[in-house]
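for ur thesis appendix - Glutamyl-tRNA reductase-binding protein, chloroplastic. copy paste whatever u need, i formatted it the way the template wanted (i think)
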Amino acid sequence: MPLLRHALLFPTLPSPLPTPALPKNAPLSSPHRYSTRGFPSSRGLLRCSLVSVSPDMPPTKGESRGTRPSPAEVSRTIMELSSRGTLSTLTPDGWPIGIGARFVVDARGAPALCLNQPDSLIAIGGRSSFHVQFEQSRSRTPQCTLLGSLSKPDDELLLKTGVWMTSSEYINADPDPIRNFAEKIVDEMNLQHAEDVRRLCNVYVDSGFEVTDAKMIWVDRLGFDLYICSGEGVFAARIPFPREVEDEKGVKSSFN
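the 3d part is after this line
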């Protein structure tokens, strides 16, 4: 399965994932400047806070639809792969508070939090946010913030200190089907097939400069993201697959 003959190259990735803008001659593993802007899901109140591209990104060819997962799908994937987050809410007397919490998600993606905080510290039914981040290949950390309200479950089998945080913004989205082995594939490509990663950059990324090093950051059902190093600096690129893949075999065959 050949790759598309066109890839997308940007100083920062135009994705719903937060991507660092890297300085020239910086090592691939140490990005240290972030440019963030909210990504609204509607004209109303934000329900999922994500990050878009850096405002100083130079003009590039437009990215066609279907080359990367949607913001809702990215959010579902982050929530499925993570187990810890930060709950931010107001105490009954109006003070803001942030609490670290472990969580699981139900079939709709709504997180169930297990908290050891007394009811007097958390205002049940009040507006809250739950922030979750997931490290990808030790090089990028996509983040998702869900906005909603807190409510106690009625099930007596649940812990008394358990609190449900509900959200309906991404119920209809599915987590990425290759999420459970994406990191394995990325590590394998970077450690065992580094030359192939550079070859893919030279063939499918129309950069206009010589690629001196490349590192795969993440892979999903629609393509993969990379950091590319050259004498011009460090760039981020997206190479889409020619068609959607559903399993590990499909991903690996797309690299050939």
